[in-house]
Amino acid sequence: MDRKIADDLNILGSFLGERDVPELTADNLREKYNFTAADVMVLFGGSILAGGDVFARGMQRHIARKYVIAGGAGHTTETLREKMGQVLSGIQVTGLTEAELFSTYLKRKYNLEADLLECKSTNCGNNITCVLDLLKENNINFGSIILLQDAAMQRRMGAVMRKYVPDKIIINYAVYNAEMIIENGKMRFKENIAGMWDVERYITLLMGEIPRLSDDKNGYGPEGKNYLAHVDIPEKVVSAFIELKKYYGSSIREANPLYAS
């Protein structure tokens, strides 16, 4: 296993796992945005367990005025149910939506409750539209919003939000930073991350994102399916993806029609 493969995967991971501030603190928000708390913070259910911990820390630090957990059932849900079942002893996780799972986790581990749960969405696109509808239904006007999502899908989530509310301050914060390393000839994560995907699934998620973010006839940008705002993909990311296709071309995740909007 070549070290260059790990380096290229880390280039993709760093690009996709967008963080607009180094850490979710009042000081960092003040320095960049001139406020200490956003109007809304949303945790999206496509995240791993670590997302619940990041969301809880944000709540404890009063990083927003309203807190929302979003997610019905999609391509990541069954994995989340399995991971949650391991940490939520005595809770029947079968059939629970992503939002309900994270809500239970938040209550059990931190004794915290979000203000709103969105339990209908099935993909990144209607994650956003359902959250915007929910905020409108509850008369929550906002000028700034923090988005917490799995690192592999964070940049896409932000781009979808920009399509619908380009005039709002959108703060991206991927819930983890995963670094791949080669050890004893095998690929692994450098650090343990709560509820992390297995290596193969993580690579599949990374490889599936670049075609989706591409603004061409096959991508999700304005020149393609128009699901999201235009995303500039740096040349080094494109080069890394092209190299990785030699090894993982068959790992590019196709959209599952079961979870289409």
List the topology elements.
Blueprint: H1 3-16, H2 26-33, E1 38-44, H3 49-60, E2 64-70, H4 77-87, H5 98-110, E3 116-118, H6 124-137, E4 144-149, H7 154-164, E5 169-174, E6 180-183, E7 186-189, H8 199-213, H9 235-248
Parallel strand pairs: 1-2, 1-4, 2-3, 4-5
Antiparallel strand pairs: 6-7
Helix pairs in contact: 1-8, 1-9, 3-5, 4-5, 6-7, 8-9
Describe the protein in words.
The chain has 261 residues and is α/β, with parallel strands linked by helices. It is built from nine helices and seven strands, in the order H-H-E-H-E-H-H-E-H-E-H-E-E-E-H-H. The protein has helices at 3-16, 26-33, 49-60, 77-87, 98-110, 124-137, 154-164, 199-213, 235-248, and strands at residues 38-44, 64-70, 116-118, 144-149, 169-174, 180-183, 186-189. The strands form two sheets. It has a five-stranded parallel β-sheet with strand order 3-2-1-4-5, with helices on both faces. The chain has a two-stranded antiparallel sheet with strand order 6-7. Strand 6 (180-183) and strand 7 (186-189) form a beta hairpin. Helix 6 packs across helix 7 (154-164) and helix 8 (199-213) packs across helix 9. The model has no long low-confidence stretch (mean pLDDT 93).
